Amino acid sequence: MRVVIQRVSFASVTIHDEIKSAIKKGMLIFVGIEDGDDMEDIQWLSNKIINLRIFDDENKIPNLSLKEINGDILLVSQFTLQASIKKGNRPSYIKASKPAIALPIYESFITHLEKLFEKKIYTGVFGAEMEINLLNDGPVTIWIDSKNRE
Question: Which residues are catalytic?
């Protein structure tokens, strides 16, 4: 699984001119799923996300987690995170899971995050054309790949 996390002051998902979900302070997380992803990837990423200390404390030092600031999560599926540009200039999405595989993993990821976070996770709609509006705070943007745990 690959995620791109953006620390935001505001983020929303719009589908067909209607806002589906919106958050204020927190994380906008894009997730791309590949066939080899499983519960171990979900658990590892969920723990990393919930405990990631990227929010400023009273001294403007990023020492606080999402829970500590009482922030929110907006989670959006994005198969293009699995793009490969190894050959040519047109990205290949062959590593991205098909919906029959990706959707149950995506739903399990949401469920696991909600359990750990003890809060509702806001989402887009899996597979839908979505417009994302965000105000990146910092900016802070972090890329994590569960297969490359650096």
Answer: 80
